[in-house]
Design brief:
This protein has about 600 residues and is an alpha+beta fold. It has five domains: about 45 residues, no CATH class; about 180 residues, no CATH class; about 90 residues, no CATH class; about 160 residues, no CATH class; about 80 residues, no CATH class. The strands form four sheets. It has a seven-stranded mixed sheet with strand order 2-1-3-8-7-6-9. A hairpin with a 5-residue loop joins strand 12 and strand 13. Helix 12 runs antiparallel to helix 14. The longest helix is centred in the C-terminal third of the chain and has 19 residues. Bound molecules: zinc ion (2 copies).
Amino acid sequence: MAFLQIYATGGVKKTTAAKFWELHRSFGTFDDREMKGFPTLLKRVRKRLPNINMSWRVKDITTGHVHTGSGAIFPERRFKDKNRFVLLEMWSRITLKELMKLHVQLHPGKSQQWFRDGVMQPELMPLRFTCDGIPCGKSTPDSLHVTAVRFRGCKNVYILETRIARRKEPKLLEDFLTPFVEACLSLKAPVEKFLGDAPIRSFYKCMKGHAGYYSCEVCEARGTCVNKKVCYPSSTMGEPLRTMAKWTEAVEEQETMGVDNVYGITGKSPLLRLPGFDMVSDSPSDPLHRDFLGITKNMWRLCVNPNKQGNMSARTQSMVSKVSKVYASVRLPHEFSHRARPVDMANFKSHEWKSLLMTSFPIIADAGQELRGGHCGVMWTLFVFLLRIYNGPEQYMQELGEARLRDIHKKFYKAFESEFGEGACSFNLHAFSHMIENRQFGRQHDISTESFESAYGMIQLSYAPGTRCIGKQILERMLIRLLKYQGHYCEYRLKFEQFKQENRYDDSIVTDDNWNFFKVKSVNKDTLKVVKIHKRKWVSLFDTDLPFDKAGVFQFNGYSDEEIILPKTQFTGKGVMYEKRILMGLYWDLLFS
Ligand SMILES: [Zn+2]
Ligand SMILES: [Zn+2]
C-alpha cells in the first residue's frame, strides 16, 4: 500500500510506527518473538490490507494536454504546480475480489460457509451495492462519488471505489457501472439489489430522469405537464406494471427503432448483463429519500407555507413549537440515537422525520388539522397511517388486505391533490403509491439506503479537505476502521443486541408479536420482569375511519398490578407512549434499519 511504501522508503515517524503497531496487534496474530523491527511489521500489515489502485487525469492548462496514469501512488511531485495542473478526475479502487477476501477475514465465525475445498466461492456471497454523490466541501469545485457494497447478513458497509472529479466532468456509464458489472460477472458474484437515490437509479438503469414523462420504474404511467413541470397526479395510480420481459422488449425496440426512449427507457443498461437481476424488483425506489426527504419535507413546507423570507405566521409558529414540545416528551427507545433538534423541523434530516412520524403520530396529524384552515389533518393522518403500515411487519398489510390498502392510499393521494393542486404532485408521490408492490420486493430495511447513508457520515469525517488523494484516504480509513473493529455484532443475533449492554438499557415498553404491551421493571440475563399494560382500541381520528389497531396504535388504559417474568425471546418489538394516552408499537425493522 502506497502510504506504507512512503514510510518504508522515506523513514518512519514515531507516531506512525505506533499506529501501525496498534493496528497490527488488532489483527490478533501478534507474536512478540517474531517481530524484528518495523520492516517486518510493515510487511505483515501490507499482507493483510487490500491494494488500493488509483487512476487519474490531470490537465495541464498551459498546453491543454491531459495526462493520464495509474498506480498505487499519485505522482504528487510531478503535478505539484497547482496553477498549472488541474486534477480532472481521480479514481481509487479496491478490487471486488480483495474486498471479499477482507470480508471473509473479518468473519472468522461464519467464513466456512463461503469456502469449498479450501477455496473462497464468491458465488456464495450475495451482495447489494449502492452509489452516491457526497458533498466534497463547500468551497471546492470537486464532487465525490462513492460505490459501496454490503454482503447478505452483514452490517458492514465496504467502500469499493471513490471518484473525485470536477463537478462538470461528464459521468460515463462505461467508467462507473461497467467495471463493477464485469467484476461481478467474472467472479460469479450474485448481485441482489442495486440501491440509490432517484438520479443515480435512472442513470444506471438507462432511464429518463425523475423529472421525465415516464420516470416510474415500476409502472408505465405517464406524467402530465403543469406549469412546464412534469407532475404525477392521483390519476397515475394503478397504471399497468412494468415487468422484466417488458423491459428487455423496450430496450430492443429502442435500439432497433432508433428512438430516444421507449416508455422512458433510453438504452441498454450494463445491469441487464447480470444474471437473474430484475430491473423492476431488484432496484426499487429508496424509501429514505422518497418518503422522508421527499414527501414529508415537501408536505410540511406546503402546510406551514412560509413566505419568501422563510417566516411563518404566528399561528403556524405556535403549532410548530407545540409539535416539537410534544415530540420531545416522547421517550424514544435508545436505538433512535439521534434525538430530534426541537423546533427546527424545516431542517430535519430524514431519520428525524422518520422518528417523528413513526413515534409521535398522531401529534403531527393534530397539528395538521390546525394548519391551512383545517384541511390537513386528514391528509397527515392518512399519510402517517400508510407509513406505519408499509414500515411494519408483513402481517400489517396482509391483515388490511390489498384492496383496502389501495383504497386508503388513493384517498391520501387525492387529499394531497385537492389541497395543493395537481402541480404539486411530484414524482415522489407517485413512487410512494407503489409501496404496495415494493413491499414484495423485500423488507423496507432491505430496500432502503439508510444503512449506506450512515456510512457516508463516516466518510465525510474521514478526509482532510484540499487533499488530492481524498478518495484514497477514505478507502484507507475505511480499511483500518474495519480491521480495528473485528468481530462486530453481525455475528450475533441482532435481536438480542439491545440486551447486551444492560446499563444502556433504558427502554421501558416492549411488545410481542400480537401487540401486547409490557412495562419493563427489571432486566435479567434471559428474562424480563414486566407489568402488562392494558390497551383499548384507538378511537378514530377525524373522519378517516382507519383501523389503527392494524398499524399498532392503541389507547392507553392503565397498568396491571401483577409483575410477571417472561423470557426475552418473547418480545419482538418496542413501544412508545405519547402523552400517557396513546401506545404505539415499534417493529424491529423500524428500530434497526
Ligand atoms: Zn459482518
Ligand atoms: Zn408507477
